[in-house]
Amino acid sequence: MLIETRGLHKRFGGIHAVRGVSLQVRRGEVLGFLGPNGAGKTTTMRMICGFLEPSEGSAWVDGVNMSLDPLRAKSRMGYLPEGAPCYPDMRVEAFLAFIAAARGYRGLEARRRVDRAIELVNLASVRRQTFETLSKGYRRRTGIAQSLLHDPPALIMDEPTDGLDPNQKFEVRRLVRELGRDRAVILSTHLLEEVEAVCTRAVVINRGTVVFDGTPAEMDAMAPAHVRSSRLDHVFRTLTTGDVPGGAA
Amino acid sequence: MIRRTLVIARREFASYFTTPLAAVFLVIFLFLAGLFTFNVGGFYDRAQADLRPFFQFHPWLFLFLVPAVSMRLWAEERRTGTIELITTLPFGLGELVVGKFLAAWGFTVVALALTAPIWITVNWLGEPDNGVIVAGSIGSALLAGSFLAVGACLSAATKSQVIAFVSCVVACFLLLLTGFPAVQDFFSSWAPRAVVQALASMSALIHFESMVRGVLDARDLLYFASVITGALLMNAMVVEWRKAR
User: Fold this and answer.
1) B84: nearest CA in chain A?
2) What pLDDT digit, counting tens, does each position of A101-138 carry?
3) A183 three-state secondary structure
4) B15 vs A13, A89, B103, CA distance in Å?
C-alpha cells in the first residue's frame, strides 16, 4: 500500500470538516477524489501530505506514518497543492533547482532531475521566465514538475487540470495515466470526465465522509438504465445531494 | 540537517535581491546611517576618533528597518500559498525557521558591512580603538538579529505583511523601552533597586550600549542569544500551532 489513511478527522474550531476518512491506494492505481466544494477533499489531502495535523487518525505514505516520521514520509511523495503555488519572483529553472536541492540532489544529478522534469511537462520554452510572468497553464505545469522531480512512488495532486485549456488537460491527463502505471496517485477534480479518462478508482466524499469508493465502471453502473448521458454526473448528484434531476435522464 | 537549513537560507537570501526590497533597504539604511553619524550625531564636532555617533542610532534605525526585512519571512509564504509547498517538502520545522532567520540576518549583516566606508573614514581621520568598533559591530549585528527573530515569529502569525511590520515595530520598541533613561528614572524614584535592575537587564538597549562601549561581556552575549533562541522557538511553535488548527 503506497498511500493509506485510517479514520482521518479534522476539526476547525466547531467545524468538523473531515469525518473518519479511510483510504488505501496501491501501486498502479489512480484514485479520483471527488466531492462538492467544501466536502473535505483538500483538507484530507493536506493531512495526507503533512500540511495539516489530523485531529484524529493517521496517514501513511509508502508505509511511513506522516505524523511520526514526517521527513521520511514527505521524501516519498510528490504533492501539487491547490492552485500550484510558487514563488512569483523565481525563474522556473531556479525554482526547480531549489526543489531538487530540497530533495537532497546536488551537482549533476540535480541538473539532470531539473532537465528531466522540464522535459516531462514541456516547460523548456519558459524555463528562464519568472513564475509571475507565466500563464495559468504553465504555472500548473511548473507545479506538476516540482511534484515529479524526485520520481516519488506516491503522488497527490489537488486539481491538476483546473484552469487548463483542452489541449493542456489532454497532456496532463496522459502524463498522469503514464505516471499511474507504477505509482499510487490521488488526484482531486471537479471534472467527472477526468475520472473516466484517467482514474482506475473513484472516491466520492460529501460533508467529510466517504460516500462512494469503487471503480468508475461501478460508479457508472449505479445510474439508472434510463439515464443515457452524463451518467457519472447523475450518480455524483445522487450521492452528494440526494437530488436526482429529471433533466439528466 | 545543516545542508537543508542552508538550502532554505540560500533561497530566502536570494529572494531579497529579486525584488526592489534589497536595493531600497540598503540605500535607505546607508543614507540614514550616514546622516545620523555625520549630521545628527555631530561626528566632526566631537573631534573624537570613534564611532559612537554611528552606533548610538542603530537601535532606532533598526526599529523601523529590520521589521521591513522580517515581515515577509512567513507572511508572504501564507499569502502566496507557498507555505503549503515548503512545509510539505522534506524540511524539518527547525530547518525552516533557522534557515529563514539566517537569510534575513545575513542580509542585515551585509547592510552593516556596507557601512565600512564610515569605519575607513574614522581610521583615516584619526586613530580609533578598533577593538571598541568591533565590539560595537557585534552588538549591532546581535541587536538586529534579536529584532529579526522577534519579527520572524510575528510574521508567522499572520498573512498580512503590514500587521507583521507594525507588530514587530511595537514588540521591538518594548524590547528597547525598558532601557530608556526616562523609564529607568520613573522606576528608580519608587521601585526597589532590584526591580529597576531586573528591568534594565531585560532591555536590549542597555546590553547594546554596553557592547558599543567596547565591553564584550558574556552576560550581554547570553542576553542576545536568549532573545534570538526564545523568539525562534516561539516562531516554530506558531508555525506548528497553525498546522494543528
Assistant:
1) A51
2) 999 999 999 999 999 999 988 889 999 999 999 988 88
3) coil
4) 35, 7, 9
CB contact at 8 A, B163 and B46: no
Count of CB atoms within 10 A of residue A128's CB?
10
Q: How far apart are CA B73 and CA A162, in angstroms?
A: 29
Of A85, A62, A84, A58, nearest in space to A73 by CA: A62
Q: Which chain B residues have any C-beta within 8 angstroms of a chain A C-beta?
A: 4, 7, 10-11, 14-15, 18-19, 80-82, 84-85, 87-92, 243-245
Query: What pLDDT score was predicted for residue B43?
Result: 66
Does A75 score more than 50 pLDDT? yes
- B9 residue type, one letter: A
For A9, the closest chain B residue by CA position comes to B244
ipTM of this model?
Answer: 0.89
DSSP A95-154: HHHHHHHHTT--HHHHHHHHHHHHHHTT-GGGTTSBGGGS-HHHHHHHHHHHHHTT--SE
| Interface with B, mutate which of A46, A52, A82, A87 (most B CBs under 10 A) | A87
Per-residue model confidence as pLDDT tens digits over A198-238: 999 999 999 999 999 999 888 888 888 787 777 888 888 88
What pLDDT is attached to residue A144? 92
pTM of the predicted protein model? 0.88
| Residues A132, A92: Cα–Cα separation, whole Å | 10
Helices within B49-177 (DSSP H only): 52-55, 58-70, 72-80, 82-86, 93-113, 116-125, 130-156, 161-177
| pLDDT at residue number B150 | 95
> What amino acid occupies position B121?
T
Amino acid at B144: A
